[in-house]
# Entry
Amino acid sequence: MWSTEDAIKNLREFYDLTQQEMAERLGISKSYISLIESKKKKPSSNILRQISDEFSVNFSYLQTGKGKPFEDPKKSREFIVQVRRPKQQKVLLAASAITAPIIPILSAGLALGVAADAIIWKMQKAYGAKDATDLAKNKLGVDRSTITRWINKNHVPEKYIKQTADDTGQPEGYLKLNDALVDDLIESLATFTEEQMHFFEGKKFDRNVFRENFLKKYGLTEW
# Structure
């Protein structure tokens, strides 16, 4: 919830001033600034006018939070971004903490339906093989026709996926992962996080509400 007191604190931090430095510029005591920022004292209209004049901030914004903080649009955008950043960081941290345990569960299904030729291409890339023939003969120790058979049957034996992982250091999960679905998952989570930033705009951030929104979004139960 917006408040004049928070606006004054945000303004001070925007100009990278200590409470003492701001107090000196306004000709008031540091303790007065401290009382305002801790919401133990309401700033008078005279103080707001002083702040408006000294820092070129719109008086109406200090009083009501409405309108642009500064006449300069660029400066206003920079100020608003800085004010929002702490809440954005909370949202991002919550997104990371809440989604981390569920990612392996969601990812488990991303290997389903991966075409054999896609797996073979990843194996070829992992080895640095120039083509499928090079992969077959010089890396896996099989005939080129064997790879053709895998593609036709749409199945690469686990033995050779494990061999590739052991030889190249690439995780087996990566070799079997459906990249398109992974991209979709990442995009979906990024979109959800952005939606939550808008959802909590002007509200106090609540991690439990964020969690509920996440569960509802993906149709999940508690894990």
In short: The CA atoms of residues 158 and 216 lie 36 Å apart. The radius of gyration is 29 Å.
